[in-house]
Amino acid sequence: MTVLLREAIGDRLRHARTTKRRTLRDISRAAKVSLGYLSEVERGQKEASSELLASICEALDLPLGELLHNVAADVSALDKVDTAAVEVDGSADQRAAERGDGRATEKSAGTFEGGRIVAGTTGNDLADLRLSPSLRTTIKAPKPKAVLAA
């Protein structure tokens, strides 16, 4: 799974804001950025400029270097999990081939589904558990069925 930098940055910014119990409105005013744009940055939908990141970090009393360090740790941890998952899945496929049953595991394509604990990661909460972007789907209301009256 490829991690988009804007998503990792947004996750970290939201985590920092909610940990300090600050609202989007409060941070948007302090950082002099629109509330809607800040929300999009936190959701990983917009790529924030370095100036904007510096302003948001200042409003959060969070050093920009610390934000970037934490984001780098998150991305690195996810890369290690993805590599380990591919290696484990590849060995499962190899064992299946050796048995001769021809079954391949679903994860052999290197997909990353669901949340996983990142082994050996210490420190902040966000680096410990990650969910796949495929789980960020919108739940749609069921379509109404036509009722025929007799």
| DSSP strand tally | 2
Spans where pLDDT lies below 50 across 5 or more residues: 101-122, 127-138
What's the CATH class label?
A: Mainly Alpha
Find the CATH topology.
434 Repressor (Amino-terminal Domain)
Distance between the termini: 53 Å
C-alpha Rg (nearest Å): 21 Å
Reported for the largest beta sheet, the result is: 2 strands, antiparallel
The CATH superfamily is identified as lambda repressor-like DNA-binding domains
Strand content: under 5%
**Which term fits the overall shape?**
flat
Q: Order of strands across the biggest sheet?
A: 1-2
Please tell me the total number of domains: 1
Provide the helix percentage: 40-55%
Query: What's the rounded overall pLDDT mean?
Result: 74
Give the CATH architecture: Orthogonal Bundle
The chain-level structural class is mainly alpha
Write the element-wise H/E pattern from the N-terminal end onward. Answer: HHHHHEE
List keywords for this structure.
150 residues, mainly alpha, 434 Repressor (Amino-terminal Domain), two-stranded antiparallel ribbon, 5 helices, 51% helix, Lambda_DNA-bd_dom_sf, Putative transcriptional regulator, Cro/C1-type_HTH
